UniProtKB/TrEMBL annotation, chain A:
Keywords for the protein's UniProt record, in alphabetical order: GTP-binding, Lipoprotein, Membrane, Nucleotide-binding, Prenylation
Protein's membrane topology: Lipid-anchor
Protein family according to the UniProt entry: Belongs to the small GTPase superfamily. Rab family.
Key word Membrane present: yes
Name recorded for this polypeptide: Uncharacterized protein
GO cellular component terms listed in the entry, alphabetical order: endomembrane system
Listed NCBIfam families: small_GTP
Chain coiled-coil ranges: none
Primary site of residence: membrane
A GO MF term: GTP binding
Gene3D superfamilies: P-loop containing nucleotide triphosphate hydrolases
Keyword Membrane tagged: yes
Location(s) in or outside the cell: Endomembrane system
From TrEMBL, chain B:
Any one GO MF annotation of this record: GTPase activator activity
Major localization class: cytoplasm
Keyword Acetylation belongs to the record: yes
Renumbered residue ranges of the record's region Disordered: 1-60
One cellular component term from this protein's GO annotations in UniProt: cytoplasm
Localization per record: Cytoplasm
SMART domains: TBC
Amino acid composition bias (Gly residues), ranges on this chain: 1-10
Name of protein: TBC1 domain family member 15
InterPro entries: Rab-GAP-TBC_dom (IPR000195), Rab-GAP_TBC_sf (IPR035969), SGSM1/2_RBD (IPR021935)
Amino acid sequence: MSYAYLFKYIIIGDTGVGKSCLLLQFTDKRFQPVHDLTIGVEFGARMITIDSKPIKLQIWDTAGQESFRSITRSYYRGAAGALLVYDITRRETFNHLASWLEDARQHANSNMTIMLIGNKCDLAHRRAVSTEEGEQFAKENGLVFMETSAKTAHNVEEAFINTASKIYQKIEEGIFDVSNESYGIKVGYGGGSGTAGAGRGDASLAPKGGCCG
Amino acid sequence: MGGGGGGGGENEMYGSMEQGNEVDYSAPLRHQEMSHSVASTSAVQQRTGSAGGPESEPSGVIDDYEVVYVKDNVSVHPTQNALGRISGRLRLIKQGSSLFMTWIPYSHGGISRQGSNVVIKGGLRNRMGSRAAERDRNLYTIRAVSLSEMRSIRRQTPPFGWQYIIIVLTSGLAFPPLYFHNGGVKEFLGTIRNHALLVRSAEDANVYLVNDIQDPLQRSLTSLELTEQPAPSAPTSSQEAPWPVVLKQETPVAAESDGKQEQSLRQIFKQEQRSESGRRRDQARDLSMNVLEKFSLVTKFARETTAQIFGESRMFLDGLDMDRGPVPRPPPGPSTPPDVEVLGIAKEARPLLENKHMKEESSSALNSADEEVVDDNLNADDDAEEQAATNVGTFELVDGTQDDTPALVWGRARPPPLGTEEWRSFLDSEGRVMDPKALRKRIFHGGIEPEVRHVVWKFLLGYFRFDSTYAEREYLIAKKKEEYEILKAQWQTVSPEQAKRFAKYRERKHRVEKDVVRTDRTLPYYAGEGDDNANITVLRDILVTYSFYNFDLGYCQGMSDLLSPILYVVDSESEAFWCFAALMEHLAPNFHRDQNGMHSQLLALSKLVQLLDRPLHDYFKQVDCLNYFFCFRWILIQFKREFDFENVLKLWEVLWTNYLSEHFHLYMCVALLKRHRRRIMDEQMEFDTLLKFINELSGHINLESTLRDAEALCLHAGERGAACIPPGTPPSIPEEEAGGWSD
């Protein structure tokens, strides 16, 4: 499968906020209420198209268990994007955001695009964190914000794709040196070889294979 | 997601391997076979008819197979006695771009009917008993080994007798010599050369390196492994390279002095040894270690073959008898005086430092080649002998997991699991386990039948003492049930008012509740949605109770994975609790907040890989992966997510026997990494790709073959392996706390 770029994403946040469900909804377009809890990390991938370029998202779905943090931190390395997820029905998952954010800032590269996700917005009747609070936190920390429902698929596509658009924009602006894989971006086949900071409209961005399959 | 659920396919994939000892690919291949290979196809087919068949094909693409080489009357000589030779058919099979080698022994009936090449004659069968002969045939069958798993092929041409080859696998394990009674070695190597890179070793003209690696360091290691010495022992000086080979530097070789093949083998190994002991110390020690290590595995078969020739067949057969449960050990000591020449090989063949009498300073592989080791091994105690017996079954190197590789098994299948009858035979009249070690050994090799698992697990986990009587256990169960109920009441009596002021309790209970509904729900025992299954409630109650029983540790993710199979097997709330609590005595450090238990195991793993596969270790170092985080899940929950549920049960009871090592799970890790070493290094996997690769092995790991590899590695590593694992590394518990596991 050819792609112009591969972006590495990580999904982080407290246990039980719906990280794995978000991933499954995005990659398989289904909601699976019964699934094994995540130990360590799980992977998912999907092709998307941005600016008519095929982009592969490789998504790392991490365990939320706090005890594992010393090890899950190693997964941050080389991620281009992160979804920081909380559960709008559980206040404490919102309260822990700062510590997740600190972890991410400390162990990921500074240009990582972070999307704040308030998940389970289908459970509005049990809401414990208001949309405004989420927006406020995102604003204070320079994050993009969105409320989603992995169950109804509301905003799930948008969350992943908007993040990719942001990353793509950064490439276009030359913020990322795509030849340096520590930014979590790999250039696909025919996607320009080692040009430091791919230039705007660089013809080499075009995928070779044509079909993004 | 959730790697736990996806094991169904594996059973299909490997089912045939477990049912029948010999899968023969001849059935689907017959129409393509070369014309001169007529001899016993039908017989072979008949023999394996029940085990073979299309369902045994791993990928279902039978049409892709092509037999590119067939040779009849290629034999293994397990004994000196000509009648004991096992003759069979050697084949090279092409599937896609991969090449596989098989060697399937003829069945007696089939051969007799053919009326030609009768190698196993009636007389022998009467003497040895056809069962033993059958076992031998099964033992030596090479079902399919991928060329990518071969490291080198040694060709020997003794002045008298038949040409033979010895195939050494990438893991360092080797097959026994294959004798070509009708010639054809040249053609064999020629065929391989058409499909793979075959490089004649610079150090020994008789050794051909398969798929020689480009990396110079690796190459030097590879070529050293079999042919450390510019071997004067190597025969066939007059032999020209029979076809063009990629020559490095041809080394002149001396003519062989002795006519007997075995003799020449011994010589080779002795030469190797001398060259080792004589080598300068300041030479890269690690390199030598690696060479020795590999070499000791290569020589294992030589020891046994030779031992047999000199009449030690008893030991050999004892090894085979493992299938039938506990075997009375022959008395230890010098009652079976081995030939000195034999020991010359044997000392190399045995993991060098495992002997209890060995001195401290012998802790380098270089030293261990000193003569005194021979004496020590002469006095080899029960353990050593036991190990030798076990080794009979450990040549196998199996690769059933690579995408394009059929399930491969060489050697015997695991013995059948411990059944009810046999279990009773381990107990005295009052219900005590008479010989816990024999029991643990038996389970280590064969596992437990499901119908007695629920009893035996309680012993393995340490809930029951091995020396307890039926009556004592009855009492224990009752007493422990009461105790459990008290513990459980501690949190169940927390009133809503109290809970409001008890955040820790609320949080714990909530986390457990979140996780039990995400644990093994695909299993009928736990099926359903939410908490609508009574067993899910039991899981929750046990875990919350445990978090009160061990309040300092509390609850951590992964515990539900460990508890679920225990509850499933034991099927009693209070007993499952105590079994789980006993297991947690060993595994609690996995869940410590600072992850110290995990880090110490990962560190030990790193050291084991360094010992058992130096190039792979160096590779991990180079790509900054020595933290082994990619093995995190394997270790945290004892491979729970890597196998389907049935196989998890089978694996755990093996691990809990604590038989060869308390840290057998780490040898499992090494075995898996070694199996995929070539791919890992060839594809230059780095942390991300490696982690993904390892994760995706889940559901695609063949348990039996991995267990065998791990056993071989564990035996091979011996005390050097044990020395890699610091005391107290989980699942060990410090001496003073040691409970049921270290009986």
